[in-house]
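Lecture notes, continued. The same structure-token format from the folding unit now serves as the input rather than the output. Read the line below as a description of shape only.
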């Protein structure tokens, strides 16, 4: 069964950190480009960070220098380390896997608030 399961979201104060995880099953994980997207109500889903099969990474300008994406092919898992969080980072974060088709997880809520 093809599945992406996110975890690690929650409530954090501004300036704090969270690490999101996305565990994949049912796919040949190592060949997929993996990514994290986020969405707030009333807005389009936007790309946050991506990592290719050869570990090339890219980031949205809004998160450069604060977020780090990484992958562990042995664990079929992609991570998003989020530091120096801001209120505007509040969103539902979605994991994405792309090869020929795009696969999505169910999302995990991240709320940055004091």
């Amino acid at each position: 069964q093809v599945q992406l399961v996110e975890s690690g979201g929650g409530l954090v104060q501004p300036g704090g950190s969270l690490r999101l995880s996305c565990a994949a099953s049912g796919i040949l994980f190592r060949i997929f480009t993996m990514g994290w997207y986020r969405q707030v109500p009333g807005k389009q889903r936007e790309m946050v960070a991506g990592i290719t099969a050869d570990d090339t990474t890219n980031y949205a300008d809004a998160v450069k220098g604060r977020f780090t994406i990484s992958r562990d092919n042995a664990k079929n898992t992609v991570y998003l380390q989020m530091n120096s969080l801001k209120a505007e980072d509040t969103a539902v974060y979605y994991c994405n896997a792309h090869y020929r088709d795009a696969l999505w997880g169910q999302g995990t809520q991240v709320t940055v608030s004091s």
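Point for the exam: The chain has a mean pLDDT of 97.
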